[in-house]
Write a structure and sequence with these properties.
389 residues; mainly alpha; Serine Threonine Protein Phosphatase 5, Tetratricopeptide repeat; 76% helix
Length: 389
């Protein structure tokens, strides 16, 4: 009987030890989490924080047609939240049919034992053995089921975590693209491009003219002459280039070069009062009065060119056209009544037209304003007044 009690105590101790080991194993397996899963969850949390920071700090893109996707999928988040590890208390229960079948298998063993107490002890031992076997099978089945559930849960959590990481990784591309586009736009706006536009012919001519005038004022006549020649080649219709060259040639003591330049202006078809007046003065110095009249056509405003028309009236008078000369001198007297030359020219015209009274009047006016007259002109007036009186 003591042997039987000892066997029962051993079975109970073994059963309690097995139950404790199973509980510790289940508790350890249920609470323990793999290292790679912790690392993956940590990386997912970092990606989520970076995406939220990038979205909050990025500048709004101007009229972007592509919307930035959401930071996280609420459905996936809810799914991860609802996913939990399997309950360790949910253990599979062996069907009631297992024990009778086992009992049926163990019944012949009990029936073959010797009678009396030995038979009862053997039967009790067999029952205890069957119970222990069932307990171990139950624990093994529960452990396998827990491992399968945990593996399934871990695979589900892994898949869901990878899905979340994929969803979190997607917004980073558009955010990076938006940031890059914003930086490119800012760089394009702040970039300064210097584009040199070629100067127009008018601008180049004005620049050469300014340089030539500055050189002439500085006394650099040769350099100024070269600049005016460049301007003449660049703009052949620029009358100022010819006039300034003629003036510089006169200052350099070469009047023939000045005459050549003015003739070049006429060959270019330039019609300018000053150019034609200079040529006419050159012809008058040589007593070429017909050329003077040809060079001075009546195509300019009298008020703007009094010297021009004064020389023209003198040429007409020298050509024997006193009335035409008188017409021009009369207009000049009205324009400049203090100019003695116009009074003298009109007096000579009246004298040629046999109008002594008008001639005497104009001679006297010439003497009155004759401070600018030469001594020869004043002597001529005195002679004519004495002859008329």
């Amino acid at each position: 009987m003591s042997v039987l009690n000892k066997m029962l105590r051993d079975l109970e101790q073994r059963q309690h030890a097995s139950d404790a080991t199973t509980a510790i194993t289940l508790h350890g397996r249920s609470d323990e989490r793999p290292l790679w899963l912790n690392v993956l969850l940590l990386l997912s949390a970092l990606l989520l924080a970076f995406a939220v920071y990038a979205i909050l700090t990025r500048e709004p893109a101007p009229e972007s047609s592509e919307a930035v996707p959401a930071v996280a999928n609420p459905a996936l988040t809810d799914h991860v939240t609802s996913a939990a590890l399997p309950d360790s208390a949910a253990e599979p229960v062996i069907s009631a049919e297992v024990i009778p079948a086992t009992m049926q298998q163990s019944t012949p063993v009990a029936s073959t034992a010797s009678g009396g107490a030995d038979t009862g002890v053997k039967e009790q031992a067999a029952i205890d053995t069957v119970n222990e076997t069932n307990t171990e099978a139950t624990a093994d089945n529960a452990l396998q089921s827990t491992e399968r559930d945990q593996a399934g849960s871990e695979s589900d959590v892994t898949a869901q975590t990878q899905t979340i990481a994929t969803e979190l990784a997607r917004p980073t591309l558009p955010v990076a693209s938006v940031v890059a586009n914003t930086a490119a736009n800012a760089e394009a706006k702040t970039e300064v491009t210097v584009v040199r536009v070629p100067a127009s012919p008018q601008q180049q001519a004005a620049l050469l003219q300014q340089q030539a005038l500055a050189a002439a004022q500085a006394g650099q006549l040769q350099q100024a002459l070269q600049l005016w020649q460049q301007l003449q080649q660049f703009a052949p219709q620029n009358a100022v280039a010819y006039l300034e060259q003629a003036r510089l040639w006169h200052q350099l003591g070469q009047p023939q070069q000045a005459l050549t330049v003015l003739q070049q202006a006429l060959q270019q078809g330039i019609v300018h009062a000053d150019i034609q007046l200079l040529l006419a003065q050159q012809a008058a110095a040589q007593a070429q009065w017909q050329r003077v009249d040809t060079l001075l056509p009546a195509q300019f405003v009298l008020a703007q060119q009094p010297e021009y028309y004064g020389l023209k009236a003198t040429a007409l008078q020298q050509l024997g056209q006193p009335q035409a000369a008188l017409d021009w001198f009369s207009q000049l007297i009205v324009l400049q009544p203090q100019q003695a030359r116009w009074w003298l020219g009109a007096a000579i015209a009246f004298d040629a037209l046999s109008q002594p009274e008008q001639a005497q009047l104009h001679y006297r006016q010439a003497l009155q304003w004759g401070d600018s007259l030469t001594a020869a002109s004043r002597n001529y007036i005195q002679q004519r007044l004495a002859a008329i009186e």
